[in-house]
Amino acid sequence: MIIMTRKINFRSVRITALVGAGALVAGLAVAIPLASHHAHADHPGRAPVAAPAEPSPQPIDAGSVSLVPGDRWADGLALGYPDTRSGALSAGLEYTTAFVECLDPDRLRAVLRDIAAPSQKIGADPVAVTRNDRALVGAPPSGPLPAGTALVLTGRMYQLLDFDQHGARLLLLFSMAASGPNAPDLSGKVLALPTRLSWVGGDWKLAAWDGGTNYQTPVAAPDSTAAYNDGWLDLPSAADGPGSWS
Questions:
Q1: Which residue has the higher pLDDT, 137 or 38?
Q2: Going by fewer Cβ within 10 Å, which terminus of the chain is more open, N or C?
């Protein structure tokens, strides 16, 4: 198993590979962009996602996939991924993590300008998204964050549902962590995020999720036999560069 730890230059926290939290989900919500999620330990107040009536989509053979760096920085984000399966997976991890971990609405608006496909609504209103995320880490709903407050996602596993040179659909599995003076213990919580990407203007962009809630719920624990049987794969190793994972 490989647990990826993201080296973030623009944030004070070190992102331990995947966090998984209801906060992000409120922002990306189930049928939207990255949406529909299920946590092993559901966040209070969040209704669990119902298991789909029809069979879950089956992951395709990912072939030889690696995590690759973007070729440029913009607003603290790594952008410019290749039009390949590796590029789609790498962009999905970068964009999803940036969206979910963001606790400031103005910052989130800037993130969405960089990562969202044109005319696509990704998640709810940034104020509502960050308010929910802040509640998850025990922070006040608005205003300055207490020192050391952060939501941390750690990427654990993935499934590639489909891919071509115009778009990709992924499932990304994260574990979660929170820091700050009032941060709860999120150990044992996982987040599965359906993520759709479109190839627009020479880069991958987040697009609204169009696959319904037809994916595996409940989510098996990362690195478990059940997870592998459900088609989850370990995240591959990464090359060095902007936004790289190592």
A1: 137
A2: N
Bridge pairing between strands 72-74 and 150-164? unpaired
Sign (positive or negative) of CA dihedral 16, 204, 136, 144: positive
Q: How far apart (Å, rounded) are the C-alpha atoms in residues 82 and 154? A: 23
Query: Are 149 and 13 within 8 A, CB to CB?
Result: no
CA distance between the termini of the chain: 13
- pTM of the model as a whole: 0.73
pLDDT digits 0-9 by tens, 133-158: 999 999 999 999 999 999 999 999 99
Distances (CA, A) of 184 to 66, 102, 105, 149, 217: 33, 17, 22, 11, 24
Q: Do residues 195 and 172 touch, judged by C-beta distance below 8 A?
A: yes
3 state SS of 172: strand
Helix axes 85-101, 105-115, angle to 10 degrees: 160
pLDDT at 38: 32
Cα torsion 156, 159, 164, 169 to 10°: value is -90
